[in-house]
């Protein structure tokens, strides 16, 4: 049986994860947050003090990582790891490694009827032939306000102008990198997530009903 694939791309803090979780629960699909995989690698590189500018050192390390957790956790959600994840994501070898993990995850789960996968290159590179592609759009100021609140609520110290600067920097890194930059994937539907979550879901339901 062909598995249903829904891709969700968009910039940092645009609400992809919340939307993906909602869709997964409502339509009984598995959710895969590809950002977690970049964050997990960033954490490993940071703990092991791997020089992230040195591609050979990265390649050697990747050869020795045989398992990686797909679980979210507080220690991969810090600002430091966010920045580092975005920096390591420019390397082709890192992207190939993460993409392989994603293909294995989808292929090994034979009984699952479908997947919602979110990230930066999911509809444009990883699952180009997805059944539905969404691109989430929110301006940087609204995203920074939401991220600021999230960090404060989780107990991390945070300064709004710094968050906004970080978000703009990550946007720049993600959009301008050579390999798999963040773009609106061909055939993707734009979803405006600047308003209430109810408004966003209304836009998405219309699209899902058409699959
Ligand atoms: O989505 P999240 O903010 O957790 O992703 C962390 C970083 O990982 C992003 O800033 C981006 O640079 C990178 N990433 C990516 N491609 C993906 C998912 C995440 O380049 N599919």
CA-based gyration radius = 17 Å
Helix content: 40-55%
Unreliable stretches, pLDDT < 50, 5 or more residues?
Answer: none
Give the names of the bound compounds. cytidine-5'-monophosphate
Could you give the count of β-strands? 5
Order of helices and strands: EHEHHHHEHEHHEH
User: Largest beta sheet, briefly?
Assistant: 5 strands, parallel
Task: Report how far the terminal alpha carbons are from each other.
Answer: 16 Å
Question: What is the strand content?
Answer: 5-15%
Number of helices: 9
Oligomer: single chain
Would you tell me the overall average pLDDT?
Answer: 95
In which order are the strands of the major sheet placed? 2-3-1-4-5
Shape category: globular
Based on secondary structure, the structural category is alpha/beta
SSE layout and pairing:
Layout: E1 4-9, H1 16-26, E2 30-33, H2 34-47, H3 55-63, H4 79-88, H5 92-108, E3 114-119, H6 122-126, E4 132-137, H7 140-153, H8 160-176, E5 189-192, H9 197-209
Parallel strand pairs: 1-3, 1-4, 2-3, 4-5
The structure holds cytidine-5'-monophosphate.
Describe the structure.
The chain is of the alpha/beta class. Helices cover 52% and strands 12% of the residues. Helix 4 (79-88) packs parallel to helix 8 and helix 7 crosses helix 8. The longest helix is centred in the middle third of the chain and has 17 residues, at 92-108. It is globular and about 50 Å long. Cytidine-5'-monophosphate binds next to helix 2, helix 4 and helix 8. Cytidine-5'-monophosphate is lined by residues 12, 34-35, 38-39, 82, 85-86, 89, 119-122, 170, 174.
């Amino acid at each position: 049986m062909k598995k249903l694939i829904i891709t969700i791309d968009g910039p940092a803090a645009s609400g992809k994860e919340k939307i993906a979780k909602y869709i997964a629960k409502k339509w009984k699909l598995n959710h895969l947050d590809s950002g977690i995989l970049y964050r997990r690698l960033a954490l490993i590189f940071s703990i092991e003090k791997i020089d992230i500018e040195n591609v050979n050192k990265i390649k050697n390390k990747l050869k020795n990582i045989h398992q990686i957790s797909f679980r979210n956790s507080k220690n991969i959600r810090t600002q430091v790891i966010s920045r580092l994840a975005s920096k390591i994501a420019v390397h082709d070898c890192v992207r190939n490694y993460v993409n392989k993990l994603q293909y294995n995850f989808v292929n090994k789960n034979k009984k699952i009827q479908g997947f919602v996968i979110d990230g930066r290159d999911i509809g444009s590179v990883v699952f180009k032939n997805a059944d539905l592609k969404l691109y989430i759009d929110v301006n940087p100021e609204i995203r920074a306000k939401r991220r600021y609140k999230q960090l404060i609520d989780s107990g991390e110290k945070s300064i709004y102008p710094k968050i906004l600067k970080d978000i703009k920097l990550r946007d720049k890194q993600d959009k301008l990198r050579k390999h798999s930059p963040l773009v609106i994937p061909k055939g993707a539907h734009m979803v405006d997530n600047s308003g209430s979550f109810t408004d966003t879901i209304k836009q998405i339901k219309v699209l899902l009903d058409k699959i």
